[in-house]
Design a protein that fits this description.
Length: 162
């Protein structure tokens, strides 16, 4: 088997190794995550990327919705969405297993935020997320399509613990 490798060295940059004309990995194109969502009750952990990043894409990851606050905002609402169902991007396929009072952790810029699930809502998927909130509290809202009911969405509402 004949393998052709070419090594490109760039000043002040990462070395790229090309195999048959394909660059398998370019460090300068990799955007580091800014957050990690962890739900221990379902064995879930996944990174999140800046809202303006190409990695903040439902076809690649769970995402911060564009309307989302970041967790360090006092009395804010963090909005995270992801696919459920089947396939390689169905990261939220077991989100429906999260129960009231389960803890959800969001590490953002090396600061850990802990939330407690207070509400589970199933509603028609119309491009809106509706829930009642206390304006004096911070929230984390997770949303995905309902398994076997693609016209409905599951919305999990969690309050930040003090």
């Amino acid at each position: 088997m004949n393998m052709n490798f070419t090594i490109e060295r760039k000043e002040n940059s990462v070395t790229n190794v090309k195999w048959n004309g394909i660059v398998p990995f370019k460090e300068e194109n990799k955007i580091p995550p800014i957050a990690t969502l962890t739900i221990n009750s379902i064995g879930f952990q996944r990174n999140l990327y800046p809202k303006e990043s190409q990695e903040n894409d439902l076809e690649k990851n769970i995402i911060f919705l564009k309307e989302s606050d970041m967790p360090n905002r006092d009395k804010g609402i963090v909005l995270i969405a992801g696919h459920s169902g089947t396939g390689p991007t169905a990261f939220f396929q077991t989100l429906d297993k999260v129960k009231i009072d389960d803890e959800i952790e969001l590490t953002y810029l090396n600061q850990n935020y802990v939330y407690r699930l207070v509400n589970r809502i199933v509603e028609q998927k119309i491009g809106l997320i509706r829930f009642f909130r206390n304006p004096d509290k911070s929230y984390l809202v997770l949303t995905t399509c309902m398994p076997n009911e693609k016209d409905k969405q599951l919305v999990l509402v969690a309050e930040k613990k003090n």
